[in-house]
Design goal:
The protein is mainly beta and about 130 residues long. The protein has one domain: Jelly Rolls, CATH 2.60.120. About 5% of the residues lie in helices and about 55% in strands. Strands 1, 2, 3, 5, 6, 7 and 8 form a seven-stranded antiparallel beta sheet that branches. Strands 4-9 form a two-stranded antiparallel ribbon. A hairpin with a 5-residue loop joins strand 1 and strand 2. The radius of gyration is 14 Å and the shape is globular. It starts with 6 loop residues before the first strand and ends with a strand. The relative contact order is 0.27.
Length: about 130
Amino acid sequence: MSDLAGTFVVLDAAQRAACVEVTPDIYERLDRDFDGFRGRTLVARYDFTEDWPTWEMHPAGDEVVVLLWGSADLVLDRGGRHEVVALAKPGEFVIVPKGMWHTARIARAASMLFITPGEGTRNESR
């Protein structure tokens, strides 16, 4: 048994799972070892005590973000208009549409589960 904070899961197009140890170079390794993440989905958990420093966007598909504990606001950029989705109770989730820029403001230290189509993910400063 593993913990998603220390071991991410990569699903390929056939839904086969591979476990990948989280290290400081995790994203470089994922791109290298999984063909730029083409046709793959990342299942990961992150803990946050501060707002995200960047906006991100996933052009390959929708992302599912599930609150495990704590409290956070997901901010979705809908063409310059920001929609705020409050996640306040464990199990609450948001589906971030394919290609939509998003970020998070952390109201209270939080842990979130991410199911992310990783190919082509982009990040920009807030």
